């Protein structure tokens, strides 16, 4: 997991831009939750665009950042966050630091965005969180029914001991796993501890807003 100190974007001088390309047929729900959480911490200039490779984008996805009324000049924001609906196989992100390579994949982008909160973990917890992110993407979201059932059992065991997947506080693992569950089609019943955890997530406004995009 990429670790940064609590980001002070004012130190960077010019506004830094996050630009994400994503396919509207597979909305990266976790990135929209993270955008909402970042807006609670930083002054963010948000924008949504449609690339010419996409013919039609549902209205709710065009307004996934809410109504954007820019009342301040660009330099008064700490971070730019632009989402481009584009015909891409998986989400791609660029950050306006010249030495940084583009990041691909919803899980990897989510890790980077969450690192901007500056949350610190020891090596064991960081590895656990990373593992849950990969499990959510590759097994819960994209795996077979058998794999999904195994993940749900594992989550249920973990959440019987701690409030969140990574311990006693919300992490990127919870965000990615919750979003994967919302977008997965499975006949597996959701165990009791997982249901309780899902409700805890949905009590937070950014998760609740993301739910509306699925309707």
Automatic annotation (TrEMBL):
<dbReference type="GO" id="GO:0005829">
    <property type="term" value="C:cytosol"/>
</dbReference>
<dbReference type="InterPro" id="IPR004046">
    <property type="entry name" value="GST_C"/>
</dbReference>
<keyword id="KW-0539">Nucleus</keyword>
<dbReference type="InterPro" id="IPR036282">
    <property type="entry name" value="Glutathione-S-Trfase_C_sf"/>
</dbReference>
<dbReference type="GO" id="GO:0006412">
    <property type="term" value="P:translation"/>
</dbReference>
<dbReference type="Pfam" id="PF00043">
    <property type="entry name" value="GST_C"/>
</dbReference>
<dbReference type="InterPro" id="IPR041503">
    <property type="entry name" value="AIMP2_thioredoxin"/>
</dbReference>
<dbReference type="Pfam" id="PF18569">
    <property type="entry name" value="Thioredoxin_16"/>
</dbReference>
<keyword id="KW-0648">Protein biosynthesis</keyword>
<protein>
    <submittedName>
        <fullName>Aminoacyl tRNA synthase complex-interacting multifunctional protein 2</fullName>
    </submittedName>
</protein>
<dbReference type="GO" id="GO:0017101">
    <property type="term" value="C:aminoacyl-tRNA synthetase multienzyme complex"/>
</dbReference>
<feature type="domain" description="AIMP2 thioredoxin-like">
    <location>
        <begin position="14"/>
        <end position="104"/>
    </location>
</feature>
<dbReference type="GO" id="GO:0005634">
    <property type="term" value="C:nucleus"/>
</dbReference>
<keyword id="KW-0963">Cytoplasm</keyword>
<dbReference type="InterPro" id="IPR042360">
    <property type="entry name" value="AIMP2"/>
</dbReference>
<feature type="domain" description="Glutathione S-transferase C-terminal">
    <location>
        <begin position="141"/>
        <end position="203"/>
    </location>
</feature>
């Amino acid at each position: 997991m990429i670790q940064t100190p609590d980001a002070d974007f004012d130190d960077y001088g010019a506004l830094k831009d996050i630009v994400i390309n994503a396919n509207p047929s597979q909305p990266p729900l976790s990135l929209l939750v993270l955008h909402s959480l970042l807006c609670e911490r930083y002054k963010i200039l948000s924008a949504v665009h449609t690339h010419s490779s996409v013919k039609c984008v549902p209205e709710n996805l065009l307004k996934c950042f809410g109504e954007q009324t820019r009342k301040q000049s660009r330099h008064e924001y700490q971070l730019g966050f632009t989402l481009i609906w584009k015909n891409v196989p998986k989400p791609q992100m660029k950050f306006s630091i010249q030495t940084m390579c583009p990041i691909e994949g919803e899980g990897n982008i989510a890790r980077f965005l969450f690192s901007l909160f500056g949350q610190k973990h020891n090596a064991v917890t960081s590895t656990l969180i990373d593992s849950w992110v990969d499990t959510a993407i590759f097994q819960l979201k994209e795996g077979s029914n058998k794999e999904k059932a195994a993940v749900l059992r594992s989550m249920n065991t973990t959440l019987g001991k701690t409030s969140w997947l990574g311990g006693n506080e919300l992490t990127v693992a919870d965000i990615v796993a919750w979003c994967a569950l919302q977008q997965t089609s499975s006949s597996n019943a959701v165990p009791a501890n997982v249901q309780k955890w899902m409700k805890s997530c949905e009590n937070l406004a950014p998760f609740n807003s993301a739910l509306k995009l699925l309707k």
